[in-house]
TrEMBL record:
GO molecular function, a single term: DNA-binding transcription factor activity
Short name of one Pfam family: SRF-TF
Recorded GO CC terms: nucleus
InterPro entries to which the protein is assigned, alphabetical: MADS-box/MEF2_TF, MEF2-like_N, TF_Kbox, TF_MADSbox, TF_MADSbox_sf
Presence of the UniProt keyword Nucleus in the record: yes
Protein name from the UniProt record: Uncharacterized protein
Signal peptide: none
């Protein structure tokens, strides 16, 4: 949409004129503020409305700006001297910038034809010093990265060690529980299948107790219809020894 140009002339309607004044006044004060901030300028704006109401803006202050204005109006050369000083500063900065650009070109190896032997030696020394600083900074960063990697590796080792110990504890607990259950199972099986006889004087441990088994007697393998034959323990042992001995040669 094309914006229509408005002809600048006095607004006859009082209400419209007051509204336009309020809008334009705010815009003017905002422009003054932006100019003072962006350009570091000392700005002072004084506005009186048609009804005599005062509006103003100043940076840094109204007194400072007005005092400088009065001084500059009484001595016009003071303003020119200020402008001359600004011009000299701008020229100095321009020369310094050109020197920096030339030095940068020389460092990268360009425009060396205009340099003398002394200038080349001085440039070489500067380049060596710069390389020393660059290498020192590079080594410092490498050492910092190595330390950082060491810290990360130590952290990972700590985590792995903790996980291994936890897994070992779980395995040990599982094995212990399994052994306990196995021992309980074996104990219950032995108790149910055997009747261990208490060791008493005159009896052989492991042999079932009966009323016919007497102290000092052992049942032999020869059995009759009347039941097993019991022989004294000592006699049984002697018979066994005689059987183990080889026959004497005639």
């Amino acid at each position: 949409m094309v914006r229509r140009k408005i002809k600048i002339k006095r607004i006859e309607n009082a209400t419209t004129r007051q509204v336009t004044f309020s809008k334009r006044r705010g815009g003017l004060l905002k422009k003054a503020h932006d100019l003072s901030v962006l350009c570091d300028a000392e700005v002072a704006v004084i506005i009186f409305s048609s009804k005599g109401k005062l509006f103003q803006f100043a940076n840094p202050s109204m007194e400072t700006v007005l005092g400088r204005y009065v001084k500059a109006s009484r001595d016009p050369e003071a303003g020119d001297n200020g402008s001359s000083t600004d011009n000299v500063e701008a020229d100095r900065l321009t020369v310094f910038t050109e020197k920096l650009k030339m030095l940068q070109s020389n460092v990268i190896g360009d425009d060396l034809e205009r340099l003398s032997l002394r200038d080349l030696i001085h440039l070489e020394q500067q380049v060596h010093e710069s390389l020393g600083h660059i290498r020192a900074k590079k080594d410092e960063l490498i050492l910092e990265q190595i330390d950082e990697f060491k810290q990360k590796i130590l952290g990972l080792l700590h985590v792995c060690t903790w996980m291994l110990m936890a897994d070992t504890r779980r395995t040990t607990n599982a094995n212990t529980s399994m052994l306990d259950r196995l021992v309980d199972f074996c104990s219950s099986g032995i108790t149910g299948s055997q009747n261990i006889v208490e060791s008493e004087p005159g009896y052989v441990v492991g042999v079932p107790r009966t009323d016919t088994l007497r102290a000092g007697w052992i049942a032999t393998s020869d059995q009759s219809n009347d039941g097993p034959e019991y022989v004294p323990c000592a006699k049984r042992f002697r018979i066994t020894e005689d059987l183990n001995e080889s026959p004497a040669s005639e």
